[in-house]
Amino acid sequence: MADKIIRVLLVDDHQVVRRGLRTFLEIQDDIEVVGEAADGAEGVARTEELRPDVVLMDIKMPGTDGIEALRTLRGLQNPARVLIVTSFTEQRTVVPALRAGASGYVYKDVDPDALAGAIRSVYAGHVLLQPEVAEALLAQEEPGGGTGRGNTLTEREREVLGLIADGRSNREIARALVLSEKTVKTHVSNILMKLDLSDRTQAALWAVRHGAAS
To answer: Which of 47, 154, 173, 209 is the most exposed, fewest CB within 10 Å of its CB?
Structure first.
């Protein structure tokens, strides 16, 4: 994966923010900014058109905001990972974005190197959740959000689930369990299907709630 260029789309209604992000990211050897969008609707259209690996998405934008854009992308089953870049620190703002399908979030005053690291992390399959936000997500989990059928998981699937909860990517899980990445992807798909969950973030939260995390 060291030779893979991570293709990034910037979605923010402030041109100065997009310019600043582009200026920094373009000096990274493994990151390429493939496009920009000024609102959520344009962000969805550009994501479908350009098929980036990672989308840096603002939350508060005129018209279609970042949360609605996330829901639309999830409905389209677009594989891009979305990293929220926001100036809002309140859990009531960040939590809905994560529940809508974001892989994590950073603040707009994030250290540039930390931003690059966050992009690489979500691209690798990690879920970036701070402990207090994970607790808020659990507290707001709707009844019936996922099933309690943990007993339908095989022993191997429970191992994989525990590593997902640790924030491990498929590659890292494969190394830890001495499996191929293809096999790990199959286990992850089975876990989501059996527990009636839609993504890795929900799987990680399910693991914490039901004591399956390591």
So the answer is: 154
